[in-house]
């Protein structure tokens, strides 16, 4: 079996989801390549070592530049805050390493373009971890749309709702709350949560032509976790936008971290001329499907339980009736990445594909700022 030696930079929540993916993929998928957890890199050596011990990484680095110099590393996995993605990805590509980058691709489109150019110049394999594409129900939605079952699409609706930043005591910056610090995250819910909704939407429903958005920052000042200083909050706490897709359909998107009661509720609904589909992250193994072509006396919304071997990815898991969960989306992305090494095909979304999401995010943020429609 061929090996793919992984060097991971960062070890937070995403470091765990990715490491689990690397550890599990070959148990369930038949693949020529097998990832080897060669090194994890983080500034704090003790914490990095504890992570390495827990997940089985063979070694630890404290400077990502040293990681890039190592001949025994094939691929760099970037799990850092967003403000480090570009520098590490570009240097990794120049060092001839493959790059797997956590979402969003970059702080903004300009940075994303430089990343794409570096990756393409080096000709290295790459992917961005928009994991929700690989929920079997969402992959099935893509299949149904591509088969033309929905007919002409009229509406695309998506929400991503959370409630973890309502308290004014939540700090900004630091290891756990960098997502609230614009210097580290670039933006708030737009880059963190709507980016997922936009990636899925572009995949399922094609390009967005223009957007009109509103954003709000409800808590205006927060203490910085590291300096203890009270600082202005510069991220968007909430964002809503509507848009036109190039296929003629209308889109409506909303995200907030102030929807009391919702922890991570990603929902989407697509209405076509012949059929509609609906999906909800809290019930992620179900796809709701309404087919107007059904016999009228039994016509209605079906709740399809995605667990059968004929459904995407499910032939690799247990037996029909037994569903899988959130962590499997990362296992699927690892399996697809390893497969792409065998076939030579790209592993979507590539950097170039993820740049399209970045362009929509930028248009959304500038539309909200200028209170004007913006072309993507
Ligand atoms: C934020 O809370 C977060 O962890 C995002 O960063 C992830 O991308 C999303 O999948 C879940 O929520």
Automatic annotation (TrEMBL):
<dbReference type="InterPro" id="IPR050463">
    <property type="entry name" value="Gfo/Idh/MocA_oxidrdct_glycsds"/>
</dbReference>
<keyword id="KW-0560">Oxidoreductase</keyword>
<protein>
    <submittedName>
        <fullName>Gfo/Idh/MocA family oxidoreductase</fullName>
    </submittedName>
</protein>
<dbReference type="InterPro" id="IPR055170">
    <property type="entry name" value="GFO_IDH_MocA-like_dom"/>
</dbReference>
<dbReference type="InterPro" id="IPR036291">
    <property type="entry name" value="NAD(P)-bd_dom_sf"/>
</dbReference>
<dbReference type="InterPro" id="IPR000683">
    <property type="entry name" value="Gfo/Idh/MocA-like_OxRdtase_N"/>
</dbReference>
<dbReference type="Pfam" id="PF22725">
    <property type="entry name" value="GFO_IDH_MocA_C3"/>
</dbReference>
<feature type="domain" description="Gfo/Idh/MocA-like oxidoreductase N-terminal">
    <location>
        <begin position="4"/>
        <end position="128"/>
    </location>
</feature>
<dbReference type="Pfam" id="PF01408">
    <property type="entry name" value="GFO_IDH_MocA"/>
</dbReference>
<feature type="domain" description="GFO/IDH/MocA-like oxidoreductase">
    <location>
        <begin position="140"/>
        <end position="278"/>
    </location>
</feature>
